[in-house]
Amino acid sequence: MTRLYRLVTTLLTLAILVTACGGQPVAEDGATSPEEATSAEDSAEEVVESEAATGPTEASVDGICETGQRLFDHEMLMTEPVCIPDDPQRVVITWPLGMTSLLRADAPLVGASSLDTTIPQFPGWEDELGEIVDIGNPPNPETILTLDPDLIIGPSFFLQDEDAVANSGAIVAAEMWTAIAPTVVFDWQQHTWRETTDIIFDAAGKADAFDALMAELDERTSELASLIDNPADIELSMVNIGDGYIRSFAQYSPGGMIAEAIGFRRPEGQLLPVTFEEYIANPEAYPEFTSGGAFANVSLEQLDRVDGDFILVSGLFVGNEDNQTALDEVRDTPLWQTLDAVQNDNVHVSDVNFGGGDIGVMHAMLDELAEAFGVADQLSPNPYVSKAEIPMAMSE
């Protein structure tokens, strides 16, 4: 067992007891019991002395937030309001999406998950993404600790300690991660991708950039809608294929929301029959839908459910033999060959992950749709092919 691993383990244990400061969730009255505070502070001092460690263990003067911090609250926050840096300088995000958008906003990312799947989708960003350390998936606390972050952002399913989650839920797990740095844990399953992106940018201190980047995306989406002849007359089927799964996109998935904004019709079998709020209130009533209602599972025997006037297939196929084999298996299925879109050569295959909540990915989806419908040369350039400046008029 390494010295660093012992330090992480000790810090994660202490975090349950440490007072609400320096990134700890803050109770409504901003206080803890004197016994808990004294015990936590004494234990923390022992760790600092024995391991030469530094961390968010010093109690704040006013019991809320220290100078240079702000009390962060958000409807998607999985904990009590939390003290985070006003101007974070070393951010780790345990979420494999949104990196290019955060980098466009000059967020100081030092660590992130799943860079191996992000870089292939954004080859023009290889240099910028290459400067970020891959913290693993699930994230490795030892790796994160070596990065000395001053802010960690991520969804509850990434920021976890298996025993803590099993016994007490994600909030306890989040409290343990705050031993490394102030931590913002968001609820991703009960919100749309835009809301998820909102809390990430807000926590990173880039809320204004979020508004500008979303406005830019909406403008380009409207532009594509005007270039495609009568999208309301086109039934667009959206399918995600990978090793061991076939999934169709529901209307509340990231890609589904873009398709809806453009105005495409969607196959009825791919749509949630209720509103997003109704689904979230009772997801057990719709067991075929997964990932917060974003997808519907499809078997090889159910491929007729993915038919439409046009089929858009997404998945990470380049350099991934398992996913490519899964795609080939679908293509070789007799039922696939009977689909109208297949027989009319109206199938477009893309390596872009339309299921991920990422502004840059949504622009890539617009490119794929423009190419599929023959209007690529008329659509304005994708600002994520390489790092483009945020439009000043939008960011003001």
Described by the principal axes of the CA atoms, the overall outline is: globular
Please describe the biggest sheet, giving its number of strands, its sense, and whether it closes into a barrel. Answer: 6 strands, mixed
- Describe the strand arrangement of the main beta sheet, using strand numbers: 10-11-9-8-12-13
Q: Please tally the β strands and state the result.
A: 13
In angstroms, what separates the terminal alpha carbons? 51 Å
Q: How many helical stretches?
A: 17
Can you give the mean pLDDT? 80
- Unreliable spans: 1-24, 27-62, 164-168
What are the secondary-structure elements, in order, as H or E?
HHEEEHEHHEHEHHEHHEEHHEEEHHHEHH
The rounded Rg comes to 23 Å
Residues in β-strands, percent: 5-15%
- Which class do the helix and strand fractions yield? alpha/beta
The helix content, as a percent range, equals 25-40%
What does this structure look like?
The strands form three sheets. The chain has a six-stranded mixed beta sheet. It has a five-stranded parallel beta sheet with strand order 5-4-3-6-7, with helices on both faces. Strands 1-2 form a two-stranded antiparallel sheet. It has 17 helices and 13 strands. It is of the alpha/beta class. Residues 1-24, 27-62 and 164-168 have low confidence and may be disordered. The radius of gyration is 23 Å and the shape is globular. A hairpin with a 2-residue loop joins strand 8 (236-242) and strand 9.
What distinguishing features does this structure have?
396 residues, disordered N terminus, 5-stranded parallel β-sheet, 17 helices, 6-stranded mixed β-sheet
